[in-house]
Amino acid sequence: MKSPSPSIGRATLLIVISAISFGSISVLTILVTGAGVSLLTAMAWRYVIGAALLAPTVTSAAAHTVPRRRVIQLLLIGGCGQALITYLSLLSLNYIPVGPLAFLFYTYPAWVALIAAARKTERLTPVRITALVLALIGVTVMIGTPAERLSPVGVTLAIASAILYSVYLPALEHLQDGVPPMFATFLLVAGAAISFVTSALTSARRDFMRHRRWLLALPLTLAPIVVRAQAAPAAAVVAPPAAQQIAAAVLPLPAEFRADAKVLGYSGSAHQLVTLRAGKGPFICLADDPSAKEFHVACYHQSMEPFMARGRALRASGVVGDKVDSARFAEVRAGKLAMPNHAAAMYQLFGPPDAYDAASGTAKAQSLYVVYMPGATPASTGLSAKPAEGTPWIMFPGTPKAHIMLQPKM
Fold first, then answer.
1. More confident residue, 153 or 173
2. What is the pTM of this model?
3. Domain range list for the chain
């Protein structure tokens, strides 16, 4: 069971204030640009001031523990993604009023659902379809009838920013994984600052340093950026006690292996695996990630640890998707990464966030059993490579990651 943060009340308050602050950005932008400051200049000063305010919060530990590749990725997504979304949405104010912009931009949850369905990462349930239809009907009403239609240019810019934001959010969620919230926020803001300053200095209208107009950007900066940064650590999820994590982590194992299994888990609000219990048995167990959306615990044979640890290290460095296995397979074939020359079991449990009941020490979760056999094929094992319910089959045949899948019910 996930453990709620003791500061959840403070986090909620800060998020509400942050939402109100972000809602004021469009109005403040109109006031600033109406005073003669170009949009690029206003955004440049907004993010420069924001980066300056956030810089003192960056600790040397955070700066040195986050891989350089991840730092560069966060700077780039801030400089490209955040900057582009901000510019497109606020540029639409030249064509449409604040109200329609806010309404059109906040259709992004609908676009998130559509993109997830297209990528087959999430299902479009009846509830989601209903919400999506209602959102689109609202957009149609807001755009207006043919007699009083909003500017197509403004509508296009607003919707484009919403779609970009729906793509930006999942990418940002992945890149922020394991990075201290304040440091991640600083990198995003710094990246956007670099992008806007460069654009402002190279634009035809160079008013970046003119008549102290940068002071007008202060209201655009202080509340939205600082409150958002403060809300992030406050909302951090705190890991359950070590004993609770250990009890849940070893549940997938047969009873005779549980007491001696090594357990890796989490401490406090840090999103980094630590050893919760040393073990002298043949298995290593991973506790449930308290920040994950679903309950998942796994125990694998110790001979698979080099392969598993290498995967965790690659993901922490910013490598994603199939590239993780591509890197590991290459290292195995080059003799740099050891793999067992025998069968090695892994036991797992999957379930909803509240699947584990700490009081009873049980979990209402789905079991999945895996037996790794590096290099195994259908020909060498007599097993099909096609998934089938109730019968074993082989996955990733012929690769270092080849394994037999044993799932009681699919």
1. 153
2. 0.55
3. 8-234, 242-406
